[in-house]
Amino acid sequence: METKKVRLTKEKETYLATLYGKAMDATAPNTILGDRFAADAVAHIDYDFEALKLPSGGHITLPLRARHFDQWTRAFLARHPASTVLHLGCGLDTRIYRIDPGPEVRWYDVDFPDVLTLREKLYPEREGYHRIGASVTDLAWLDTIPGDTPVLVVAEGLFMYLRERDGAAMLRRITEQFPRGEVVFDGYSAAMVRLVSRLATVRGAKVELVWGIDDPHDLEKQVPKLRLVESVAFLTMPDLVDRLSKSWFSGVMHGVMGRLPFYRNLVRHLRYAF
Hints:
single chain; Rossmann fold; methyltransferase activity; two-stranded parallel sheet
């Protein structure tokens, strides 16, 4: 990592919220993710992070979300030590350094070119690690990747920004290119997509969410090789509820809300296999 501070243009500031949430957790007494790589990156970026409008509870929800996807990633790599990881919409996430995959893993971080340029300034090279600067829905980037191993597709915080037809087309291509694998991502319900978009408009943020998933089995119809293996209601995960329940009353309210299917389905962590 460079020792001098990295300066950002206004356009690149949107990548910082998730990184900052993990960095805040890294210095907390009861850390969730313990992402020292995120903390180091924040220390090397010339930006007033205290002025950043982090979503309420983001220092809890963001590292918890990342930790769950890290767990799924480690489990997959334990079963498939010689495999390929496609980390889509990677942003400034440091998953490859947290996971530290073995020498037989080919890892690809995929995001827009300007994001990859910033990553190059913040994070070191390592064996088996590749960066691809492209839109994930411009499927030409897949032409450069061998399809001879099992693949894990990790798309944290991405699919709600994609158009449904584009996301489904990408997954169809991946399931055709690789012999077998898994796809893991967080899916928002249509109601959650509307809610987050409206709140962003009120806050003056440029957030456009478009893909809501009310029934995870619908994706099986669009991508015939996929089958749903696991669906986890993120908002009712015990550790999340415990950490967000700052009082007896808020704990009770979380318990009440957690029994409502509408609430449970707002945000789900989904794992598919093919």
